[in-house]
Amino acid sequence: MESIDFGNNQIKLIDPATFNQLISLKEIFLLLNQINEIYETTFKALINLKIIYLSNNKIKELSPGLFNGIVSLNIINLNENQIENLNPNLFNGLAQLAEINFGKNLIEKIDSTIFYGLNNLKMFK
């Protein structure tokens, strides 16, 4: 399986082991749910993931290691959540990242080092 779409449901929490056996997964769509927390290990096994959509949820905080090891990640969409802070290490090791969308959140400050190593970044919104 390369793509999974759980969009427009009532998901509040994702068990950290949910995606452990789906290492070939390239796209995850979890938009339009009620997710308010994501465990740091939830996406660890997804080494081939390219696209992740978590927009229109109730996420308030992102663990600094949430995307660690997902070196093929190209697009992260987290718009329309309730995120207040972005850890400066959130995107460490994501050299292939081209698009990040954090529009319509509650972000108050962006650390000057957050974009370090993101040489392929074309859009930050």
The profile of the biggest β sheet is: 6 strands, parallel
- Gyration radius, to the nearest Å? 13 Å
Strand content: 5-15%
How many extended strands? 6
Helix/strand-derived category reads mainly beta
Name the CATH class.
Answer: Alpha Beta
Would you give the CATH topology?
Leucine-rich repeat, LRR (right-handed beta-alpha superhelix)
Taken together, the total number of domains comes to 1
Number of helices: 0
The CATH architecture: Alpha-Beta Horseshoe
Q: In which order are the strands of the major sheet placed? A: 1-2-3-4-5-6
Q: What does this protein look like?
A:
There is one protein chain. This protein is an all-beta fold and about 120 residues long. The protein has a single domain (about 1-125), classed as Ribonuclease Inhibitor (Leucine-rich repeat, LRR (right-handed beta-alpha superhelix), Alpha-Beta Horseshoe), CATH 3.80.10.10. It has no helices and six strands. A six-stranded parallel sheet has the order 1-2-3-4-5-6, with no helix packed on it. The radius of gyration is 13 Å and the shape is globular. The termini are far apart. The relative contact order is 0.16. The model has no long low-confidence stretch (mean pLDDT about 95).
